[in-house]
Amino acid sequence: MARQTDIRPVIKLRSTAGTGYTYVTRKNRRTSPDRLVLRKYDPVLRRHVDFREER
């Protein structure tokens, strides 16, 4: 049986606005093998921007 960390690895989400702000989360590799893109709040810019998965 696969370990929990193999199926759901910890990933960093980095702001596309270039502020350097990151979020840390987990994702399921089986259901979403592509890079994750989420629209989240960037406190440096004080607005919502896209955050992309960083490897």
UniProtKB/TrEMBL annotation:
The keyword Ribonucleoprotein applies. GO terms for molecular function: structural constituent of ribosome. GO terms for biological process: translation. NCBIfam families: PRK00595.1 (NF001860), rpmG_bact (TIGR01023). HAMAP family: Ribosomal_bL33 (MF_00294). It comes from the Bacteria. It holds the Pfam family Ribosomal_L33. It comes from Micromonospora taraxaci. Belongs to the bacterial ribosomal protein bL33 family. InterPro entries: Ribosomal_bL33 (IPR001705), Ribosomal_bL33_CS (IPR018264), Ribosomal_bL33_sf (IPR038584), Ribosomal_zn-bd (IPR011332). The keyword Ribosomal protein applies. One of its GO terms (cellular component) is cytosolic large ribosomal subunit. Keywords: Ribonucleoprotein, Ribosomal protein. This is Large ribosomal subunit protein bL33.
